[in-house]
């Protein structure tokens, strides 16, 4: 459980630098350059993500369960996750109408992903994992409201179409077995 927590809070911590310590980011970029910053950012993200994922099964083996999940919540999750994946992809692409409408679709996607997983995982380890991501996404969104506004580029429906295609492909990959392989749980509710 210790490595899981180090991975979780380290991963969220490195993803919080721009939101909560922008001066640190600016100073590091000034010293080492933007490409070096991106390389370090990716390296630290991976260094924390690996123990998060690798220790999750062990943390789950000793978790506390709070009850049995109603099947209806599993169906709600099955609807939320494809939407979350599309929004996460849309937030990573150049500006489309999804981004114009939601402002920060990647954060909305993280919120939906976390909420959906909280609906279907009624155990302490999952509450810590998905609850942390949900709180992180809310706090980052609040911090973004304090940044100076920049003039956005005009949206293009092309990027929305690409987001839907990639999000749909990711959903298909998870449904076809990747989720079971990676996490040991089928993403489609049975019953």
From TrEMBL:
Top-level taxonomic group: Bacteria
Annotated compartments: Membrane
Transmembrane segments: 35-54, 75-98, 118-140, 161-182
Span of domain NnrU: 4-187
Main localization, broad class: membrane
Alphabetical keyword list: Membrane, Transmembrane, Transmembrane helix
Bilayer disposition of the protein: Multi-pass membrane protein
Official protein name in the record: NnrU family protein
């Amino acid at each position: 459980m210790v490595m899981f927590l180090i991975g979780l809070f380290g991963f969220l911590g490195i993803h919080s630098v721009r939101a909560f310590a922008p001066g640190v980011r600016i100073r590091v970029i000034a010293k080492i350059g933007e490409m070096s910053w991106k390389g370090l950012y990716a390296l630290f993200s991976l260094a924390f993500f690996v123990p998060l994922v690798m220790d999750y099964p062990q943390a789950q083996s000793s978790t506390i369960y709070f009850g049995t999940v109603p099947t209806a919540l599993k169906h709600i999750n099955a609807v939320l996750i494809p939407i979350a994946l599309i929004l996460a992809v849309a937030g990573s692409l150049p500006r489309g109408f999804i981004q114009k409408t939601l402002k920060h679709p990647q954060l909305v996607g993280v919120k939906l992903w976390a909420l959906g997983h909280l609906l279907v995982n009624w155990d302490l380890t999952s509450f810590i994992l998905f609850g942390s991501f949900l709180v992180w996404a809310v706090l980052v969104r609040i911090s973004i409201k304090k940044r100076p506004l920049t003039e956005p580029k005009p949206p293009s429906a092309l990027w929305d179409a690409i987001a839907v295609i990639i999000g749909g492909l990711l959903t298909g990959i998870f449904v076809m077995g990747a989720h079971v392989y990676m996490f040991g749980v089928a993403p489609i509710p049975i019953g």
